[in-house]
Amino acid sequence: MAGRTWQKSSYSGASNGCVEVRALDDLIEVRESDEPGTTLGVSPAVFADLLSSIKVGGLDHGS
Questions:
Q1: What pLDDT, on the 0 to 100 scale, is given for residue 15?
Q2: Structure confidence at residue 27 (pLDDT)
Q3: Euclidean distance between CA atoms 3 and 24, whole angstroms
Q4: What is the CA radius of gyration of the chain?
Q5: Sign of CA dihedral 10, 29, 4, 17
Q6: Do the domain assignments include residue 2?
Q7: Cα–Cα distance, 47 to 62 (Å, whole number)
Q8: For every residue of 1-62, which 3-state class applies, written as one string?
Q9: What is the tally of structural domains in the chain?
Q10: Could you report the per-residue pLDDT of 2-59, keeping only the tens digit for each?
Q11: In this predicted structure, what is the pLDDT of residue 22?
Q12: Locate the DUF397 domain: which residues (predicted)?
């Protein structure tokens, strides 16, 4: 992941309402593209855990 540059999934296309991420030193920031003023900063380890949970469906509704 390139540092300091916001990135979004290639699956997002040109639509708004996408989650964007960027790396800042020892912090990963996450924001929603249509609310760029609000960010969430987490450690790389916490972000990796989040991605793992998403990949296995651990955050799906009803699971």
A1: 65
A2: 95
A3: 6
A4: 12
A5: positive
A6: no
A7: 22
A8: CCECCCEECHHHCCCCCCEEEEEECCEEEEEECCEEEEEEEECHHHHHHHHHHHHCCCCCCC
A9: 1
A10: 568 899 877 777 666 788 999 998 999 999 988 889 999 999 999 999 999 989 988 8
A11: 95
A12: 5-55
Per the structure, the complete domain to which residue 26 belongs is given by 7-54
Contact between 47 and 27 under an 8 Å Cβ cutoff? The reply is no
The Cβ-side half-sphere exposure at 18, using a 13 Å CA radius, reads 13
Q: Which residue has the tokens 């651990």?
A: 58
| Structural domain includes residue 62 | no
Run of H or E residues at 50: helix 44-55
Q: Is residue 25 part of a domain?
A: yes
**DSSP H/E element including 44:** helix 44-55
Would you say residue 34 lies in a domain?
A: yes
Give every CB contact of residue 45 below 8 A, 6+ residues apart in sequence. none
